[in-house]
Please model this.
Amino acid sequence: MDTIKLIKVAIGEEKADFVIKNTNLVNVFNDEIQNTDIAVYNGKIAGIGKGYEGNKEIDLNGAYVTPAFIDGHVHIESSMCVPKEFAKAVVPEGTLTVIADPHEIANVFGLHGISFMREACRNLPLQVYFMLPTCVPATDYETSGFELASHDLSMLIDDETVLGMAEVMNFPEVLNCKNSVLSKIRIGKLKNKKIDGHAPGLRGKELCGYIAAGVMSDHECTIAKEAAEKLNLGMYIMIREGSAAKDLQSLIPILKGKNTRRCIFVTDDRHPNDLKGHINDMIRQCVAADVNPITAIKAATINTAEYFGLNDLGAIAPGYRADLLVFDNLKDFKPKLVIKNGEIVAKNGELIVNIDKNEIPKLRGSVNVKWIEDEDFKIPAKSDTVKVIEIIPGTLLTKKVISKIKVKNNFAEVNIENDILKIMVFERHRATGNIGKGFIKGFGLKSGAIASTVAHDSHNMIVIGTNDADMKAAAIELEKSQGGKVVVDKGKVISILPLPIAGLMSDKPFETVLKECDELKNGVKQLGCELDDPFMTMAFLSLSVIPSLKITDKGLFDVDALEFVDIFDTTK
Model:
């Protein structure tokens, strides 16, 4: 019956629910802008053209209308907000659909974590689709809360909100034909669903093998040459602009090339501070860099929809969902109106629908650390020369460097003058007592310590500090709060963001989380750190699939050699 009514509205025999008149419609099919009207019935677009009548009408006086934006790959948990608070931030910015990978919470709670996210995303003005995590844990080089095998994921693949298999991070095992990974890819292929990739630096014949396995996209390109090679081999390139990994500027040349229809905008991991300005901010950056505005809009709309098979999203045309954005111009991309399923849900940057009644599902506590002792922070010295993880600001990559530390009473100690600090990872799921120990360069702390239970991908507790006492105080504080992020100096908590939901998300409103994040930043600055987002940088130091040197609860790990290495350099 709805289809019959939709047809009658489209041919002008019956009134529409809503007619948007006098628009400059951005047509992503022909790259043109046309002055026209848009007729909407029952949340769908019935017709495009002049002369439609509606029960409700609005004259936009020539304002621009685009399809609503789609984030092609995001970990909502990285916002440290539950889904409804995430929606409050991104919907007014024009993002009405996200493709979420619940990888983070799955590493803590397994299938129960995925179920939590599915339930928490219901009845929001944000459409959330899911990709099933393929790497829980990401590798065997760390301890996660759960392991998800192919038979676990097969129970969810037929869900209508599931679009495929999420980023296949362990590409070495794909190339080595490990059935544990290939069986997960096979689940998605058998259901004709998408297989997302994660293959930083993979090129040549190995890249061909990865694609031949069925992987269709990648969001780890940091240089245009790598992205071009992957595009030429048929992959979709997810251009990422996260809080720590900012790849957009280096990949803008791709958006001025020939294969732009296979380019997709994604945010991957963003802290609350970077949600006020979401996919729309990526478009704005592109336009400022002389990318054709419609090309940029397509990377945020139709390209993403077509890749994922969302056939009624990403464009303004008959039969498509009436997910629309209204702009004064095609430069600043701050939407005046955000329309979801034909209803206005945000105006001038403010959400106008109430979603506060959406209840958060319950979860048990997740920080289960073996009793923390003073000795846990000591490192017996084999020499005064150590292998150090050096961060590279603005990227998830790290360097391997050899540096001098201080030795006191036969224990290895920090060298604050040379910015060499201690870093430790405590297993926090099963109380195994595993502690990975090492040294880090690039944080610039002059005193105190910082700690977090957000540490990709297994989310063990990571602590960085200038002295053992403050590192211990920070770790104990996070155990008390059942997760979070904390700054400690001279034994006192300077600032803390409790994250009691899986040690990843707050149960507080977005504005409160934003305020507490700002307090964390200020607290770290007081200790001497000048990084833009030190906690986001910190969160990726235990990710053992991104080169070059990382640390997990099992020890210092050389990603290039795929092996654990001794902290000390004893070659001299």
Summary: Residues 336 and 342 are 15 Å apart (CA to CA). The chain has two domains: 68-309, 374-564. The chain is about 25% helix and 30% strand.
